[in-house]
Each structure stands twice: as structure tokens, then as C-alpha cells.
Amino acid sequence: MEPKRILFVEDDPKDIELTLNGLAEHNLANEIVVARDGVEALDYLYRRGEFAQRPEGNPVVILLDIKMPRLDGIQVLRQLKADEQMRFIPIVILTSSQESRDLDECYKLGANGYVVKPVRFAEFVDAVKRLGVYWVLTNEPPPGSVRRL
Fold first, then answer.
1. Residue 53 belongs to some domain of the structure
2. Which residue, 24, 25, 35, is CA-closest to 59?
3. Engineered SS bond to 7: which of 51, 62, 106, 130, CB 3.0-4.6 Å?
């Protein structure tokens, strides 16, 4: 069985903690990598800087916030979906933004899903669990997207 790795791109420490707890409850990934902004996410994916020596292979899914410092999620989404090597990685927007222009832009750029973060703790954890179960256990990643470690 292929290892399951999730890239979670989020700048809010509370949302990071809640999401990691929600995913851990179901043991949904061998590894969850947290990037705290878009620049760090791209460094991870392109194996640059501190991530130059990371294991080969891409995550089975990227959970991507929109509103972040340095490089926002829409810019990351735009770059990844335009890249021949990265465009097949499923990207789910996990954001507090309910703005229709953000939703429209993300789907136009090729997002595979758009989940608005619930405000209540229990609802947030439940949404993360359901999201993880689908993308990690149910969805079949494209060939070559995950390599054995």
C-alpha cells in the first residue's frame, strides 16, 4: 500500500491544531506536513530550501487555506494547476472565506473542492474528518502522484 501524505497549508495555529486532531482521530495519513504560508507550501512541493532533502513523491491531497501571508492560497492554486507535474494533485480549499468571488476563482483555477471552515469546534473537527476520509481513504490518486518511501 502506498504511503498517504497530506500537505496542509494554513497560517492559523488554532486551525492547524484542530485539523491535525481531526485527521489523527482516524489515522488518515502516514504523514501530515504543515506549511504555514504559500511560499513554504511551494518550497515543500518543489523540494527547495529546508525541504530539499524531503522524500520524493507528492501528497495525496493538499488542504489549502486562501488568506495567508507572503503568498495566498489562490496564487498557490494558480501555480500548481498550471504546472504539468503538479496539476493532478487534488487541492481542496479549506477556508473561512464565504465570498462568492473566492469560490468562483478557486473552481475556475481547478480546485477539487471548497470547504468553508465551520465556526464551532465540533463542526470543524467533523468537517475535517469527513474531508480526510474521502480524499485519503476513498479517492484514488492519479498514477505516479505517490511513491513508496
1. yes
2. 35
3. 62
For residues 40 and 113, give the distance between their C-alpha atoms in angstroms, rounded to a whole number. Answer: 22
pTM of the model: 0.83
- Name the grid cell of 5: 501524505
In 3D space, the residue among 8, 76, 16 whose CA is nearest the CA of residue 42 turns out to be 76
Q: Within a domain: residue 52?
A: yes
Residue 143 inside a domain? The answer is no
Asked if residue 142 is part of any domain, the answer here is no
Which CATH number does the domain housing residue 133 bear?
A: 3.40.50.2300
d(CA 66, CA 102): 8
Which residues partner with 114 through β-bridges?
93
User: Can you spell out the DSSP letters for 28-52?
Assistant: --SEEEEESSHHHHHHHHTT-GGGT
The total domain count for the chain is 1
Q: Which domain covers residue 44, as residue numbers?
A: 5-137
For the four alpha carbons of 77, 81, 87 and 88, in that order, the dihedral sign comes to: positive
Contact 122, 93 (CB under 8 A): no
